Amino acid sequence: FYRGYALGRLGRYEEAIASYDKALEIQPDYHEAIDNRQIAMDNIKSVSNSGGKILAKLSYLVRSLIDFFKGIWHKLKK
After folding, report:
1. Contact in structure between 67 and 35 (CB atoms under 8 Å)
2. Looking at residue 40, which CATH number applies to its domain?
3. Total structural domains in the chain?
4. Which of 1, 13, 29, 60 is close enough to 23 for a disulfide, judged by CB 3.0 to 4.6 Å?
5. Helices within 1-78 (DSSP H only)
6. What angle do CA 20, 25, 26 make, to 5 degrees?
7. How far apart are the first and last CA of the chain?
């Protein structure tokens, strides 16, 4: 259980879930392990969702930079 807690605090959520699973094999009604396992799973979802948002922002930035340099190129051609 404590290993899972420490791993979760380090952001190593998959490993934390595995540790909570082991704790729950030993004591299936260990409510703190159940709750912390769910928190780790929610954190994985949160990280994956934010990754998509970051990718969208980077894509927008790249398109903006391309448009910017195209504008400069057209002005230099004149």
Report:
1. no
2. 1.25.40
3. 1
4. 1
5. 2-9, 13-26, 31-77
6. 100
7. 69
Radius of gyration for the chain, computed over Cα atoms and rounded to the nearest angstrom: 22
37-68 confidence digits (pLDDT tens): 999 998 888 766 666 666 667 787 888 888 88
Instruction: List all residues 6 or more positions away from 37 whose beta carbon is below 8 Å from its beta carbon.
Output: 4, 16, 17, 20, 21, 24
Neighbour-count burial for 11-46, b at 16+ CB within 10 Å, e otherwise: eebebbbbbbeebbeeeeebeebeebbebbeeeeee
Residue range(s) defining the domain that contains residue 20: 2-77
Residue 70 tokens read as: 């195209």
